[in-house]
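Inverse folding, one chain.
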């Protein structure tokens, strides 16, 4: 079993199951922070899936897409933290 088979048969199914679990948390999250964290985790897992696909197909251009998604996820998390801080200050 080489690296490509290991990524394809072991890591990708684990990531797929984790996305399903995170999506359930996103739908059932009792509060807004739970849902935002679940969405951020889904984006991060999506970045991992894109990276594995890039390694598997030997196309490094997909890593650029993963970097852009990581920047967007980071900015979204920072914006949400700023929103929560402002909301607590107003209460």
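Residues assigned per position:
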């Amino acid at each position: 079993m080489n690296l490509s088979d290991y990524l394809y048969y072991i890591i990708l199914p684990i990531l797929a199951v984790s996305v399903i679990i995170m999506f359930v948390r996103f739908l059932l999250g009792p509060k807004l922070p739970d849902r935002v964290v679940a969405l951020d985790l889904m984006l991060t897992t999506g970045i991992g899936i894109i990276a594995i696909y890039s390694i598997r197909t030997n196309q490094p251009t997909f890593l650029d897409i993963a970097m852009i998604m990581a920047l967007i996820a980071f900015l979204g998390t920072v914006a949400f933290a700023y929103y929560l801080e402002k909301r607590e200050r107003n209460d």
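The chain has three helices and no strands. The longest helix spans residues 61-90.
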